[in-house]
Amino acid sequence: MKKVNVRLGAGYDILIGAGLLAQAGSCLRDIGLGGKAVVVTNPTVKRLYGDTFEKGLSAAGFQVSTSIVDDGEEHKSLETATRLYTELSDFRAERKTPLLAFGGGVIGDVAGFVAATYLRGIPLVQVPTTLLAQVDSSIGGKVAINYGQLKNKIGAFYQPKLVISDINLLKTLTPQEMSDGLAETIKYGIIQDRELFAYLGSHLSEVLACDEGALETIVYHAAKAKADVVAQDELDLGFRNILNFGHTIGHGVESASGFKTGHGRAVSIGMVAACEIAVRMGLFSRSELNRLENLLLRAGLPVRIPNLTVEQIMPLMRHDKKIARGKFKFILPKAIGDVFITDAVSPSLVEQVIIDLNEKT
Ligand SMILES: NC(=O)c1ccc[n+]([C@@H]2O[C@H](COP(=O)([O-])OP(=O)(O)OC[C@H]3O[C@@H](n4cnc5c(N)ncnc54)[C@H](O)[C@@H]3O)[C@@H](O)[C@H]2O)c1
Ligand SMILES: [Zn+2]
User: Whose CA is nearest to atom 22 of ligand 1?
Assistant: First the structure.
């Protein structure tokens, strides 16, 4: 097992290892939790892993109530939160009753939001079950629900007491879910951790075959990279922005495609586009960009823009309201493992890169 300490608030640990799910009860006891516990999960995760999780919790003396949230982004909603409040209240959950968010990012976000607000906050434990949730959404304390068309618009910063990442659970993900999580994992290699990037390059086949040692290594490095970034900027006022590497053009592609190009795929394309901009500005070497493209392709991710025009993409790119009209904030690489934030990218260069990276060109 590996451990990452997140230096936020009182500090909390991320435990990463194979088979941790069955021991979750004793991990909770170790940080002083006991009595009742509420598990929030979805039908897929419950069917696959619910028994193992609940048995371990009961064996450690917890009285468990399980709430189910149906699968899908549309259930990250106020309606779901309202129902969960009722179920917590019916179970007579108290200020010390932990809420265990057992699922992917959707469950982590909505259950986290409920934990942040019920009785002004009850202990939250993240038990992430997708690669994306283990390397990204369970770390850093952002919890949220969607409101109408506004994604993640109602939320809070609320740090968990503990994160338990059992890498064995990743074995049942679809190849697409795995590669979506890999896009963000590769991102950490570029923004923060050159060693992780090199490891992915030499061990990708083991990762894709769900080798336990390889999964533990990449989840550990990625979680550590995210923890290091968020600890320097808890409330997302500046430095956390580097986590948006690949997300400026990526967001434009994801939205312009009507979300047919999913988030991980869009970020993959966005990372290539940001690197191409950096190459053309003389900041980054083409051979490093080639290494990135190669790795993304081997991870099953796209590196070219699907058939979408500049006119469709540019208006939907992520804007920073503090920056003058027409300008974008970009996170650009200087080397693998080293990025910086800039607003000095000319819109005409952005446009040209989008045109040149179109798969039809
Ligand atoms: N809070 C943050 O900082 C943050 C960061 C990034 C993303 N997010 C949010 O995360 C969400 C996306 O998360 P996601 O990609 O995990 O999606 P998800 O939660 O929808 O899970 C993806 C699919 O995998 C299934 N699944 C989960 N665990 C499984 C397992 N072990 N085996 C088999 N199937 C499993 C789920 O049932 C679901 O169908 C979005 O709502 C996004 O906004 C939040
Ligand atoms: Zn992302």
Answer: 104
Pocket test for ligand 1, best of 44, 163, 166 (most atoms within 8 A of CB): 44
Distance CA(139)–CA(166), nearest Å, equals: 15
Q: What are phi and psi of 144, to 5 degrees?
A: -165, 160
Could you give the count of Cα atoms lying within 13 Å of 2 in the half-sphere of its Cβ? 17
Predicted local distance difference test score (pLDDT) of residue 45? 98
Ligand located closest to 137 CA: 1
Supply the pLDDT for residue 10.
86
Among protein residues, the one with the nearest Cα to ligand 1's atom 4 is 137
Q: Whose CA is nearest to atom 11 of ligand 1?
A: 105
Mode of pairing for the β-strands spanning 99-103 and 36-41:
parallel
**Tokens found for residue 179:** 């590669």
Ligand 1 pocket check for 142: Cβ under 6 Å: yes
Q: Is the distance from the beta carbon of residue 141 to the nearest atom of ligand 1 less than 6 Å?
A: no
pLDDT in tens, 251-266: 999 999 999 999 999 9
Question: Which two tokens mark 261?
Answer: 């190009």
Amino acid identity for residue 348 in this structure: S
Closest CA to 200 of 296, 318, 68: 296
**Of the candidates 272, 277, 248, 249, which has an alpha carbon nearest to the alpha carbon of residue 352?**
277
For the chain, the farthest-separated pair of C-alpha atoms sits apart, in whole angstroms, at 62
Rounded Cα distance between 287 and 268, Å, is 17
The ranges of the chain with pLDDT < 50 are none
Tokens representing residue 160 in the block: 């968990």
Ligand 1 centroid to residue 133 C-alpha, Å: 6
Q: Tokens in use for 103?
A: 């699922």
